[in-house]
Fold this sequence. Notes:
- It is built from 11 helices and 50 strands.
- Strands 1, 22, 23, 24, 25, 30, 31, 32 and 33 form a 9-stranded mixed β-sheet that branches. Strands 2, 4, 5, 8, 9, 10, 11, 12 and 13 form a 9-stranded mixed β-sheet that branches.
- It is elongated, with a radius of gyration of 48 Å.
- About 15% of the residues lie in helices and about 35% in strands.
- By secondary structure, it is α+β, with helices and mostly antiparallel strands.
- Among the domains are: about 90-240, no CATH class; about 545-645, Immunoglobulin-like; about 650-705, no CATH class; about 740-790, no CATH class.
- This is Tip attachment protein J domain-containing protein.
- InterPro entries: J_dom.
- Keywords: Signal.
Amino acid sequence: MRMLFLLAVAFGLTADPAQAGPVGAAIAAIGAVIxxxxxxxxxxxxxxxxxxxxxxxxxxxxxxxxxxxxxxxVEMGDDLPLSFILGDYATAGRRKYIGSWGRNQRFITDVIxxxxxxxxxxxxxxIGDEKAVIDFSRIGTISGAEGEVSDVTERxxxxxxxGQSLGHPAQISSxxxxxxxxxxxxxxxxxxxxxxxxxxxxxxxxxxxxxxxxKAYAVVTLQYDREDLTSMxxxxxxxxxxxVYDPRKDSSTGGSGPHRWxxxxxxxxxxxxxxxxxxxxxGIYWGSEWIFGGRNLPAWRLPRAxxxxxxxxxxxxxxxxxxxxxxxxxxGLEVSVDQPAADVLEAIGRxxxxxxxxxxxxxxxxxxxxxxxxxxxxxGDIVISEGQSLTPFYPVAQTFNALSASYPEPREGWASKxxxxxxxxxxxxxxGGRYLPTSVSYPACPYATQVQRLxxxxxxxxxxxxxxxxxxxxxxxxxxxxxVISWTSARNGYEAKKFMVEQxxxxxxxxxxxxxxxxxxxxxxxxxxxxxxxxITSPLQPIGFAQGIEGWAALxxxxxxxDGKARKPAIQVSCGANEPDVSEIRIQIERSGVVQFDxxxxxxxxxxWTLTDVVAEATYRVRGALISERTGSFVxxxxxxxxxxxxxxxxxxxxxxxxxxxxxLASEGGIKVVDTLPTAGTAPDQLVMLSTTKKIWxxxxxxxxxxxxxxxxxxxxxxxxxxIAANNILAAHIGAGQVTADKLxxxxxxxxxAIIGVLRTATSGARTxxxxxxxxxxDENNAVRIRIGNLG
Length: 792
């Protein structure tokens, strides 16, 4: 073991102090395995094979475990190591460029590199703390010169247009239905500079003019909104899973499908934990360029049968409490290329009950436990000439009966969430009623129900504490780590009890020393009844304080001159006083559905504002809002309808030439011009005109008072047909009996348009009647003697 540890040190892959010991050395060893085949050969020559990831390491007394390490803060700088996403995961990414453009710089475009490898699509976007609703059926488009762009036109995807695409609109609740954010995904297969960035940022404005070949990034454009989008929100991106190689889908290696190792165009997105682990172990490449994990590792070092079995086990359908089925083991994480690949495999393994063993230069996986043993022994099979050991239980400091866990929860914005705690009642009773808790994190498992399955199985298995070390004869020489054997022992009271082989050391003479730990495949059985409820508190974008307005009022007023006479129509508005931190009031005036004015006025005593840009006798709607220094949001008052007042034209408003013309016309008409009304008229119906107002008055003798009611008589023949507009004299305008026969002057009856109706020579007795449709003759007894026309 000391030689193995020193070998790991030579490759810089030793575990940290909390990982020291056999398991830590195993992790270091497999890290070296992934580095290259030379180390694999060295390990094989040493004759030692170790299980990479044991549950004991997960639940050790001082576990060295990373938390759910979703990156919520965008990184900046070109000196950072490459990173990429495996499976389902989210990241704030790395800012490659940000800038403003458009008229008055009202647009901001942020370029975020999400992964150093191509991803086919953007699965989800979080804006602030809220998952955005992306309308993938529409795109926002712009046209015109860069400095003149002020508006965005949305179109259905696939519609033709000229200009640039901003991408799909992304909606959050705080925008209240407004379209202000657009996102466009660039999947990593691009070969030219992004057209929007080249349009919006030219020359020195756009220093990041690279294509970004092979890198998936998002182009997020925001339009400034002084009400609801006044600052840059935080962004979190979840790309679609990375396409990876699945040997089960490679018909050239015994599978079925088009996958071919090294040809990324044949790969498919996957969240299967074993499939992802296989790709990490064999190596992540972009074309022929090595990125991460195993390097130049031949396929035989990852034996197909064991890996296919692990992949199939991860795909097994598991029923949840809601009756929904989900894959047994999925995973997701962000990988930085400066991480040890062994750490990544350990995180994946922890998320999927997936163990690894380096056996004879090969890396073998195991998911859960096999149901059947591959070898059976009794007490008589043990080589008694060699030493034996038994560890029946852990020290109290390493004994646990309750398990807490944390994991990244996508439904809560990828924040780290605590899963419901698991307490083993039987184990607690066996421990004398003592509550012995521990905790574990699953940074690569963003699935709530899967976390609960992991907790149940791992706590149950950890309670199986019995460990043995012994030497077995040559017929057990084929045993490997991860194999399960059964042991019937009268000495220990075992009846076909199952043990896992955790370590194998080959000895001269074909015997071997094995380290065993008790296991039970039933620990991995799952029932929906075991699922505990998880309370999800979906984060919402915090909607800040919105400034309201109280006491809003509006009325029509007339502005007066120095003489006290009304000169101009206006609308006067007012609202409540002394609102704290309010600096301005915003007032909108609308007429016929069109906003005529949108103005800001200082918010100050007496909190009354007069709006003069209106016309007389017109109907307007007016509303107001207060602008606070504490928030960019405000609430409009209700609309108030106001009709402005009429304005009279005063004599002093007229020029002297107009006044003189009035007096001349009055004089010619026999109307006397006076400065004031006389006490009495000189004759009935005398007319005078006041020089000050140019108004005509009549002396009404019966009432002995001046009256402005003047009767105008029209002489015969003065009103002709051309003086009367069509349809202006109606029946309602003529009194009853006022039109007599002598008033009709027609030469023919045809000049009168009407139906005949009934014409009678007498009302009864002998008579003749002419109707519209017949002629009838009656005798003196009112009997019809002759009927011509309609005989009905």
